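User: Structure please.
Assistant: Input sequence and predicted structure:
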Amino acid sequence: MVFISGLVLIPSSKIFLFSNSAILVSICIAAFNLLLSIYNIQFMTFIQMMTDRNHIGRVFGIIFSIAIIFMPLGTFCFQAILDLKSIYNYLLFGKLLIITASIAIIMNIFISND
């Protein structure tokens, strides 16, 4: 799912360069957000199925605490690294998502073969 959401983001910068249509770019971003929501639902369902009922609250508390702790750090880092007015940010994020998902898939294949 993460791999597909990366593929959806890549054409958004090229679409904007060739057509200057904010609507077409918005469709790419909306598709990315839809796929991200589907991934999050699957992740939360997996956590609920694999966690003991007595520990679900603690596990979700840790997951959400870590997410909240890293939000300001991510905001600070990405503001320092990225040019906020560049249209190539979506291209960069799309490629990074594809690379990360590919590495995770390859690692999963190697781990399951052992």
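The helical segments are 2-19, 22-50, 56-81, 89-113.
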